[in-house]
Amino acid sequence: MDELNSLFQGFAVVLTPMNLLLMVVGIVLGVLIGVLPGLGGANGVAILLPLTFTMTPTSAIIMLSCIYWGALFGGAITSILFNIPGEPWSVATTFDGYPMAQQGRAGEALTAAFTSSFIGAFVAVVMITFMAPLVAKFALQFGPPEFFAVYLLTFCSFVGMGKGSPFKILASMTIGFALASVGMDTVTGQLRLTFGWLELMRGFDFLIAVIGLFGIGEILLSMEEGLAFSGKQAKIDSKIVLATWKKLPKYWMTSIRSSLVGIWMGITPGGATPASFMSYGLAKKMSKTGNKFGTGEIEGVIAPETAAHAAGTSALLPMLALGIPGSPTAAVLLGGLLIWGLQPGPLLFTEQKDFVWGLIASMYLGNLVGLVVVLTTVPLFASILRIPFSIIAPVIIVICAIGAYTVHNAMLDIWFMLLFGIVGYLFKKLDYPIAPLVLALVLGDKAEDAFRQSMLISQGDVSVMFSNYLVGSITALALVLLFWPLISKVLNKIRPPKKDEFEAERPVD
Amino acid sequence: MSLSETKAPEVKGPATYLVEAAVAICVIILGCVVIYGSRELGAGWTSEGPGSGYFPFYIGLIMAISGAGILFQAFFSRKGKNTAVFVDGEQIKRVLSVLIPAGIYVFAVEFIGLYVASFLYITLFMVILGKFSWVKSFIAAFCVNALFFMMFEVWFKVPLYKGELDLLSFLGY
User: Fold this and answer.
1) Global pTM?
2) Of the N and C termini of chain A, which has fewer Cβ atoms inside 10 Å?
3) In A162-251, which ranges are continuous DSSP H helix?
4) Which residue of A has its CA nearest to B114?
């Protein structure tokens, strides 16, 4: 029961008035970010990261992770009230959430969504509490080849599990890697791919890319659609909350199943969106009222929300235990660790006990605080979406510019942000996934170091990737995922597949 | 795509598969630039192990190949060419009405600093695109910037760019 001891120590770290205040501030900012178009979890955290430079790492991670929980909660508000999914994984929530709002049951839908988000996150945090130390301990034996194999697995699973053209996933990923290699080479100290442009020596910071791709790109997209929000009114009072809570225990099977789906898919990168769809599909198949799904069934809100939050939370497990983030937001948090001077990876659990357990404890508390905050303040946040877009758009662009500037105090970064914005707009319109680009940009240097070290060990022999059972099986799994688009084609020829009924709605993540 | 959609009123604009092809060609060019750059650095094996260009070389190679794949899919997809309009005139106008002022704004930041430029940008954006009255826009822009100023300069002590002409120097920050 070492974990429980450490966890209680973590609670002791977290439970100071300052940290609790930061938690509430983080949640409120997070919900705001989740509700506003153009600001999602990843770039919200990226923009606010510079504000934490002067804090202690523990306070900083508490505030930033709370922003993340807040953004996850906020996504549900827009999907249910406005039929606009704030994040790709809230798309499935709109299927039943918006019809419920149309029937005047918005309060019920929101309560169900928030509560099941909380349950999904809670189950996932319990899993992290007990699994993360084990994974970290196991990973202490990893050498460079093993780490490179895990990186390979991370990136190959984008190809294997992603939707859309595998070429586009590969292109997006390699652009990320190429941008990551610009600047000073960490091994030889040579300048790489700067083509004589000294300002590029610093390289491309992924925070700039995140702010541009997600923030500016999203604004351009919303602008193209000529935004006119027409939302439903939301009134939540304690009566509706209690009445809904009374109904929820009936769907315990759905909750458990969705949490498990979420945890399983969340550990692999880019898993939250497929998890929410898979969970919705399963609930539809298994529910007695499955044929009524899509017309405003409460179960159709519970299933995707639970899974999405379980997945969003368990995406932090590989980030904590291995130093490999499972989602763009986790990648931004990882970038934060580096800035605060912590070395992510398995050693974090032994060297930075207070930090790790403080973070895990803050996950429990943050989600609880978040649930209370969103249940009490929904009408306030819903009214933000009624502010005309011509006020919100320039303010968000200003916020993005400030965020981009503060990363390195460099003007050039604001220009890059604008450029990334245009790229983000084109990529979104052409169904290129953005998450692989961001993850490759964050992990590029580390993946390359691991690769070069493994190549040095083996003197350039690629077979080092199969030198023992552990590294061999990870590499083999990675290769299977990489060629999955081809393998599944062959399998389809042999045995015609069942049709995926949500194929069209699922966004490219 | 259903039949009724293709018969919808004529909208002019570039077809999606053409834009797709153009972006794919950009990806190929970028891939070739990376390959060229890493060959210059030494993409082979040096006395100290893999050279600086060793890893980027393969990255560039995969990028160029996937660009070619996307280009091929744009023209010879099994579903046929995607001839839907990528953006119509109205849409591109709306996008540019955000993008061009944003460019001018970033340009202005270089000279007059973040706060003053943001103030002018929000005011003008609201008046010209949002059709708000001058007074309302003025107040909104001032409040937003005052909030940012307090947050960054005073509370969190993160100084922002004041520009080459520091118009706010009288504030003492």
Assistant:
1) 0.86
2) N
3) 166-181, 206-210, 217-224, 238-247
4) A402
